[in-house]
Amino acid sequence: MAVRRSPAVAALVVWCAAAAGQEATPVLPPPSARLAPPGTELPPLLTVPPPPAVPILPPAAACRSCPTDYHPGYTYLPDQDPDWSRGGCDGECRACRTTWVAAEVIFGVAKDLGEVDYRKTLGVWFGGGHWFDDARTAGMDLAVLATSDSAAVASAGPIYREASLTLWTIDANLRAELFEAGQWRSTGLIGYRYLHFREQLVIGSALGVADDEARNEVNAGQIGLCALYRFGPYTCETEAKVAVGRNQRREGVNGFGPSGNDVAVIPEFAARVGYQVGEGKWCTFGYRALYLNNILRPGRGETDFFFHGLTVGFEVRF
User: Fold this and answer.
1) DSSP state, 80?
2) Secondary element (H or E) of residue 225
3) What tens digit of pLDDT does each residue of 164-197 get?
4) Quick one: which of 106, 112, 108, 156 has its CA closest to 126?
5) Are 134 and 151 in contact (CB under 8 A)?
6) Angle at 229 between CA 170 and CA 106, to 5 degrees
7) Are 176 and 137 in contact, with CB atoms under 8 Å apart?
8) pLDDT band at 200 (very low <50, low <70, confident <90, very high)
9) SS3 letters across 101-113
């Protein structure tokens, strides 16, 4: 059995050998017996715990109508699918564009069937809507159209005539997609329309001034159809609506005159072509027309009224 020597004993053996004139090989203690300087001892090794278990998550559901070649770092002009924008599904595909806002300036003319010359008018149209879900099964829209002409003055000796008109209408609709195939889509509309038409005719002479004014207010229900086709950066859209309701009308000279009610039919038609200038943004050019029947006008009685013109606008979808 091996005998362990302490450091003091080993040093004593070396000293005795040196005193006897003999060389002695220093005897060092075994490594297990060597002492480390105070404060430098290493702590005992600790047992490393096993890593926590990683939960296995189910695969993420695929995004609806996500183009397989879409990359969130790219900007697509034209959009490969204009109804979808970047975002959604952690940026892996697109989120549905369910809201749109548009505006148009209308450079138009107006007349009734008894007039020979058209009257120049300038109008504006604002519209927008929202789909309640990505599948476009149901949505709503709202539109406002307003137009007027500057006062037209005609003189004949001591008598002069001054005429001006103002027309504005607002309609709100529920809509649902009826058909979609590739780049084609059609949508059905049903809703409500209010129309206000006012025209004033002033006749002056040396004997006095006669102010003849006619007002028409129509509350009507309406139905409509919208068709859309896309190809590349271009869009072609047509929209037709027909409203039928009650026209409350009144004509008076200097504030006095009779009033009455009648049935009014208001068809509206619009067509436009759009060109994409940014992600979800289009410039539009088109045509818009509005027809009124059984409209009371000063100096003409009951007649029809037709307004139409060319449009320039802008649309944003988000």
Assistant:
1) S
2) strand 208-231
3) 788 999 999 999 988 888 788 899 999 999 999 9
4) 106
5) no
6) 35
7) yes
8) confident
9) EEEEEEEEEEEEC
Can you say whether the dihedral through the CA atoms of 285, 291, 296, 298 is positive or negative? positive
In the numeric block, which tokens belong to residue 3? 């005998």
Q: Token pair for residue 190?
A: 């049903």
**Residue 121's pLDDT is what?**
85
Q: Point out which residues pair with 126 in neighbouring strands.
A: 103, 144
Spatial neighbors of 195 by CB under 8 A, at least 6 apart, are 167, 168, 169, 216, 217, 218, 220, 243, 264, 266, 292
Residues 6+ apart with CB under 8 A from 123: 105, 106, 108, 145, 146, 147, 148, 167, 307, 309
pLDDT tens digits for 97-153? 778 899 999 998 877 655 655 678 889 999 999 988 877 778 999 999 998 876 555
Triad 80, 82, 85: Cα angle to 5° = 90
What count of other Cβ atoms lies within 10 Å of the Cβ of residue 203?
Answer: 18
| Cα–Cα distances in angstroms (integers) from residue 124 to residues 32, 106, 186, in the given order | 98, 6, 25
CA triplet 218, 105, 112: central angle to 5 degrees? 45
Q: How many angstroms separate the CA atoms of 292 and 282, rounded?
A: 31
For residue 233, is the peptide bond before it cis, meaning its omega torsion is within 30 degrees of 0?
A: no
Residue tagged 């002409």 (tokens): 149
CA distance 176 to 275: 25
